[in-house]
Structures are given as C-alpha cells and as structure tokens.
Specification:
The complex is a heterodimer of chains A (277) and B (225). Chain A is mainly alpha-helical. Chain A contains twelve helices and three strands. The radius of gyration of chain A is 32 Å and the shape is flat. The chains are: A mainly alpha (277), B mainly alpha (225).
Chain lengths: 277, 225
C-alpha cells in the first residue's frame, strides 16, 4: 500500500518537474516575463521531491530543473540591473514619447547623438603600384595550368564482381537490400522488442564496428523512406526503432526533421560491454 | 623635429591610413592589428592622432567588445580586442544628413528603432518594432527600412525575429545621450524650423529613395538591389 503511494508520488513529482522545466524554458526564450515565476515556490517543489529520487534519470530531472532555474534567476538579475542603469525607461513611456514626438524632433534628437563613421574606399597610388608589381610577377595561366594537367590514364574493362570486391557496388541491389533489412528489423523487434519497438543500439549494434555502421546506415534509409520510425525519449535519452507493418508512402502533414545519431567507435564498444544502459 | 616626435608623426600617418581606408568588410581596425603595425605604444599614437583630428571635427572612437566596456582604465588586452574607428566629433545638421544620403523619414525611423530596442533591454521582437514604426511610416516602407538598418549594421536580427543593436550603432550612436534627449524631447524645439525646411525639400517618392542612399551604401550592397 505504502509502496504504491510512493510510486504515485514519484510519478506526480516527475510530472511537476517537467512542467516547471517547460515554464522555465519559455521564460529563457523570452516568451514569458521572468518575474511571473515565484522562485521560492519552485524551490519548495524541488526540495519536497528530492528525497524520493533514486533513479539517475530522476536525479537528472532534478538537476535540469535547478539548471534552468539558475538561468531564469540570472535573467531576473539582468532585468534588475538594467532598470537600475541610466538607460532604463518604462517602455510604455518611451513608446508614448515616440508616438507623440514629431519626426522632425526625432531627427533633431538623433542628430545630436549620432557621430557617423568616416571612411574611404578609394584606391591609392601605393596600392596601384603594389597591384602592378603583383601583375608583373604573375606567371601566365598557360604556364601555371601546365603543372596541374592530370596524368593520362588508359581506359579498360572491369566486371561487376571486381567492383563488388572493391566495394564500389554492393552484391545486392540497394532496394532489395533495404527490403531484406526491413524484414530483419520486423523479425528482430518481434523477437527481442516490446510494444513493436526495440532500443536503437540493440538493433544496429553488430559484431564488428563496420557492421554496426552499415546497419545504422541502412536503418537511416528505412526511416527516411517510411519503412520505420524513431521514438525518442529525450529526458531518459532513449531512442527506439519501430518498424511499420506497411511502408508509409503518404506525404507527412507535420514538418520532417533530421535526427543526428552518433555511431562512434566508443559508443559501439560501450554497447558491446553492455554499458549503454 | 626631435627624433621621438618624428617617430610618432610617422606612426600617426600610418594609423591614419589604416583607420580611414577600409581594410575589411567592416570599417575600423582592431587593436591587435594596430599593435602589430605600429607597436605596443599604439594607444599613444591614437592619442596624438585624435588630438590632431580635433581641429577637423573628427575623433578616434574606441569601441570595446560588446558588454565588456571597462569601468576603470582599460587593460592592454581589452584595448587589443577593441575596435577603432574615425567618427565625426560633433554632430551633423539636418541639411548635412540629407546631403550624405539620409531621408528624414529613414533617419527618424532609425532613431525610433534604436531607442525602442534600448528600452527593451537591448532586444525587441521585429513585429513589435514594425508596429511602432508603422504608426508613422507607410506599411510598405517599414519592413524595407528595418532591412536597410540591418544591412548597414545598425541592427541585427536572429532566427527568432528578435532584433538587437549591431556594431554600427555601438560605434556611431551615443546611446545614453539619445535616450536622455528623447525623454526630454519637449525642449528640443530649436532645430525644428531648419528641419522643416529640409522636409519640404526632401519629399521624394519611394523610387528616389535608393538613388539617395547610394552614396552611403557599399558597392556590394548596391549590387544586391
């Protein structure tokens, strides 16, 4: 009974912190007045839930809240600092002034505060002489381009097998390869995944790093062509792949976005050692 | 002339060339460039030059990095990172402003834009500024004018359509004086008559606008049009 209550509290706490983070982010983006926020209230909420946090992702959420709160406090302090400077005037008062001031007076005021830069863009005798010296020492194009002429290479024949060996071509047609890979994804998700999805790394990770890169490459095409999609949980930093039963060929209503996913050698080693959790 | 004076005269001459002739996309010269060309005593050279330019109603203007204006005496590092310009020491009359290519409407719009952004702590939504300018300027001109102020370097805009003051405002406009004078604008009546004269002369249509601006725009910007 007690455990169920604690779990409920933790969930509520997470939701509260997420809502606070959203509000803080809006303030940071200047969408909301920084003084709309009661800092004490936020701190009370953070303090109240802090003893309940055990999982790293919850502690992460807590740290993120504090980080955003610090940014908003900085904004508030900048606002106070600005008000205390001689350059502060109530924007409404200023707007009123601007509205009632005739443009002639406005120009008069501006001209007294405006000291335009003085600069020249003309060529000088010195720079002309320098340019002439450069021109004289410049080697003609016909001589300069001689050095760049490429070596003559004879043409010859090659076979498809040879090109596959040299990895210029794959031994399968790409679309065929994608189709097979899509079936593999579906089977893999069916066997190892849950709710029709599985962890991105568990799917793309291969025996070798080269294999992993190849799988990540093909996965990106499956997603782009509408054979699968990604499900991202930003707070938990989890990425899932989710194959579709049928390819999605209809144009999307929402804006398509590119999601960069790093597949570095270090990441692959971490995954191999099971440290990706 | 003593040897020391001769050295400073030669250095001041070199500094004049560097400061008057545009070397980069933007006018002005960085402190470290002057240091490289004139030596570590370049602040002294600029002082000599500034003193000389006083008689010509010009001055050497030092603009420190944004938000890093030193409170006390600037350090060598701060001076090296600062940018130096030659600017007008006094101020222009409305007629002179017109002669260098500014229409009164555009200049008034610029004054409003700068004052409005200062009052909003250095950043304002483009839409809000358009509304303010739209009260006195025709709609078709508002957007064009803001774009022009951005092109000249008076304002800058980010991806979220937020406007900020840019390098040219920092170099050319005494923001505090503008602000104070604007708040006491009732007292500013002396100039009105002479400006009214200019307005009567300068009531060109929209197509004359670009021709007039040509004199102060860099060539590349003229080509864009």
């Amino acid at each position: 009974m007690q455990a169920a209550k604690t779990a409920r509290d933790t969930k509520a706490g997470r939701e509260k912190l997420q809502r606070i983070i959203e509000m803080l982010t809006a303030i940071e983006a200047h969408a909301v007045d920084p003084f709309m926020l009661d800092v004490d209230d936020v701190i009370k909420v953070v303090k109240a839930y802090f003893p309940d946090w055990e999982k790293p992702e919850d502690l992460n959420l807590d740290a993120e809240t504090i980080h955003h709160l610090a940014s908003v406090i900085k904004l508030q302090s900048e606002w106070v600092k600005h008000r205390s400077t001689s350059l502060y005037a109530d924007p409404f008062l200023l707007e009123e002034k601007i509205t009632v001031t005739p443009k002639e007076d406005m120009v008069g005021v501006f001209l007294r505060a405006w000291h335009p830069i003085v600069e020249l863009e003309q060529i000088t005798v010195h720079s002309l002489a320098q340019a002439m010296r450069y021109w004289e020492s410049l080697v003609p194009l016909s001589e300069r381009w001689k050095e760049l002429a490429p070596d003559e290479v004879g043409t010859g024949f090659t076979s498809r097998d040879e090109m596959i060996k040299q990895r210029v071509l794959s031994d399968k047609v790409f679309s065929e390869e994608l189709e097979i890979f899509w079936q593999e994804m579906k089977t893999c998700v069916g066997e190892k995944g849950a709710d029709g999805k599985m962890r991105y790394w568990d799917f793309v990770g291969g025996e070798t790093y080269e294999q992993t890169v190849q799988r990540a490459f093909l996965t990106s095409f499956l997603i782009t062509y509408g054979y699968a999609t990604l499900e991202i949980h930003p707070l938990e930093e989890l990425v899932f792949v989710k194959p579709f039963e049928k390819p999605q060929t209809k144009p999307r209503k929402e804006q398509a976005v590119s999601i960069p996913l790093s597949v570095s050698h270090d990441d692959w080693q971490k995954w191999k050692k099971g440290e990706m959790e | 002339m003593s040897k020391r004076k001769g050295v400073y005269a030669a250095k001041a001459k070199r500094a004049t060339h560097m400061l008057f002739f545009r070397r980069h996309m933007k006018p002005g010269v960085k402190g470290w460039e002057l240091n490289k060309s004139l030596g570590s005593d370049y602040p002294k050279v600029l002082e000599v030059l500034d003193d000389y330019l006083k008689n010509l109603d010009l001055k050497v203007k030092t603009v420190f990095e944004e938000k890093k204006t030193p409170v006390a005496k600037p350090t060598v590092e701060e001076l090296d990172k600062a940018r130096y310009y030659i600017t007008l020491r006094g101020d222009l009359t409305p007629k002179e402003a017109k002669m260098i290519g500014w229409r009164i409407d555009d200049l008034a719009g610029l004054a409003v834009a700068i004052a409005y952004i200062i009052s909003k702590k250095g950043q304002a939504m483009r839409k809000d500024l358009e509304d303010v300018l739209g009260k006195k300027l025709p709609g078709w001109k508002v957007g064009l004018n803001i774009d022009r102020y951005i092109r000249y370097g008076y304002l800058t805009e980010d991806d979220n359509a937020q406007l900020y003051l840019d390098w040219r405002t920092r170099a050319e406009v005494d923001q505090k004086a503008l602000f104070d004078m604007l708040l006491n604008v009732e007292k500013q009546t002396e100039l009105t008559e002479s400006i009214e004269e200019t307005v009567e002369e300068g009531t060109e249509g929209p197509n004359d606008d670009d021709e007039e601006q040509a004199s102060i725009e860099p060539e590349d910007q003229q080509e864009e049009k």
